[in-house]
Design a protein that fits this description.
This protein is an alpha+beta fold. Among the domains are: 89 residues, Elongation Factor Tu (Ef-tu), domain 3 (Beta Barrel); 66 residues, RNA polymerase II/Efflux pump adaptor protein, barrel-sandwich hybrid domain (OB fold (Dihydrolipoamide Acetyltransferase, E2P)), CATH 2.40.50.100; 120 residues. 34% of the residues lie in helices and 32% in strands. The protein has six helices and 22 strands. The strands form five sheets. It has a six-stranded antiparallel beta barrel with strand order 2-11-14-13-12-15. A four-stranded antiparallel beta sheet has the order 3-10-8-5, with no helix packed on it. The chain has a four-stranded antiparallel beta sheet with strand order 7-6-4-9, with no helix packed on it. The longest helix is centred in the middle third of the chain and has 34 residues.
Length: 443
């Protein structure tokens, strides 16, 4: 072996020994850092969990139903035409105020006016005839009838004498038999005229019969009915306001042609405005008349209007499964039909309820509701019973008392009796684990 080879072997042996020593030294350092030796440094202790507390208080709380509603009038009508014809009267514009019974629309139909005039004249004639029958026969009429009877008697006597004379001449053969037949016809006509004159005189002397008077009375009633029908047709041409209100929409102007059942105008009573909203079926049973409510309208930002349930509809909408309720707003001067609003219907209200923030109550895997109370630096678990929830706070029916400090943050992994720590610098005089005065309390 040459000297150079021998030198290289010596160097390799030295490097292997140095590597072994270095590895052993590193392992010793690792064990020393892990505290494997009895004389190693002690591991630092874990700090108690940091929590935040708030004092259990009393105050008002309400259970409410949040709904949406719309301002709508109770009195609202769309007036349509019942006849055809040109519009002769329509001076209205949107926003005009009208009174009950005031004329709104008039349609020109001259034929209906002519029918009224004709019916009035026919009624006048029928009444005049009835008055004559009720008044009886006048003396001059009876005297005239008697004169007619005397004239008929004279005519009948003359025809009788003429008939007798001709009969003798026919018997002697001086006249043909045809002359006798002509004389007999004239005599018969004269006697019939005499009988008629006598009957007329008898009627006038005895007066009109009850049947004739009843027939004429019926004629008067018939004429009155025809007049009422003609007036009714004419009145359909003039439409009056059914109630006092405001015109919201005008569909026609003067001179337009009105068609049967075509809309003419729309009007509402702005004093009958309510807020209508739909209550879901699951909560429809608790809504009662007289319940208080609060309404916020998009048209009046920042304004809350007090209201009250005035009407609850008796049935549910079969399609939407909701019940409609009407709310009377006490300050309704700013309302207008069609406004959208948010309704807070107050179902229950408690003036002095024990409340805590909702995050203070935890639901266990078993379904129980618990809360932790901070006492003597430890977390004490309490089983609680909750009630109404509103605005991030929940009512406590049992388990907590006013004045106690309930943990509202950091209690998710706490156990009953666990030591807790409150934020803020602890006082030197305070024992280990006990919270500093007023430290970490939610204001």
């Amino acid at each position: 072996m040459t000297p150079s080879q021998t030198c290289r072997l010596k160097k390799a042996r030295i490097f292997r020994i140095a590597g072994s020593v270095l590895a052993a030294f590193s392992i010793a350092l690792v064990f020393a850092g892990c505290g494997g030796g009895e004389g190693g440094p002690a591991q630092p202790q874990k700090k108690p969990p940091l929590v935040q507390i708030e004092t259990v208080s009393t105050g008002p709380i309400q259970r409410a139903i949040e709904l949406t509603g719309e301002v709508a009038p109770i009195e609202s009508i769309q007036i349509s035409s019942t006849v055809e014809g040109p519009i002769g009267y329509c001076p209205w514009r949107e926003g005009d105020r009208v009174e009950a019974g005031q004329k709104l629309i008039e349609i020109d139909r001259e034929i209906y006016r002519a029918e009224v005039n004709a019916s009035e004249a026919a009624l006048a004639v029928a009444k005049a005839k009835l008055d004559d029958l009720n008044a009886g026969t006048r003396p001059e009429e009876i005297e005239k009838a008697r004169q007619s009877v005397r004239e008929a008697e004279q005519s009948a006597a003359y025809e009788k004498a003429d008939f007798d004379r001709i009969a003798q001449l026919v018997e002697t053969g001086a006249l043909p038999g045809e002359e006798l037949e002509k004389a007999r016809v004239k005599l018969t006509a004269a006697e019939a005229k005499l009988n008629a004159a006598r009957q007329q005189l008898e009627i006038l002397e005895s007066g009109f019969t009850r049947t004739a008077i009843a027939v004429q009375q019926a004629s008067v009633k018939e004429a009155e009915a025809k007049l009422e029908l003609a007036r009714a047709r004419l009145e359909e041409c003039a439409i009056a306001a059914p109630f006092a209100g405001t015109i919201t929409k005008v569909f026609v102007r003067r001179g337009d042609m009105a068609a049967m059942k075509a809309p003419l105008l729309r009007m509402v009573d702005l004093e009958s405005l309510v807020v209508r909203c739909a209550v879901p079926e699951s909560q429809a049973g608790v809504v009662k008349r007289g319940m208080r409510a609060e309404i916020r309208l998009d048209a009046l930002p920042g304004v809350t209007l007090p209201a009250e349930v005035e009407r609850v509809y008796p049935e549910l909408d079969p399609q939407m499964r909701t019940r409609t309720v009407e709310l009377a707003v006490k300050n309704d001067e700013a309302l207008a039909p069609g406004m959208f609003g948010r309704v807070r219907l107050i179902v229950e209200s408690i003036d002095a309820a024990v409340t805590v923030p909702v995050q203070a109550v935890i639901v266990t895997p078993a379904g129980a509701q618990v809360a932790f109370v901070a006492a003597d630096g430890k977390a004490v678990q309490r089983k609680v019973q909750t009630g109404i929830e509103e605005g991030g706070r929940v009512q406590i029916l049992a388990g907590l008392k006013p004045g106690e400090d309930v943990i509202i943050a950091g209690q998710e992994k706490l156990k009953d009796g666990a030591v807790i720590r409150l934020p803020g610098p602890p006082k030197e005089s305070s024992p280990a684990g006990k919270p500093a005065a007023n430290g970490g309390r939610s204001q």
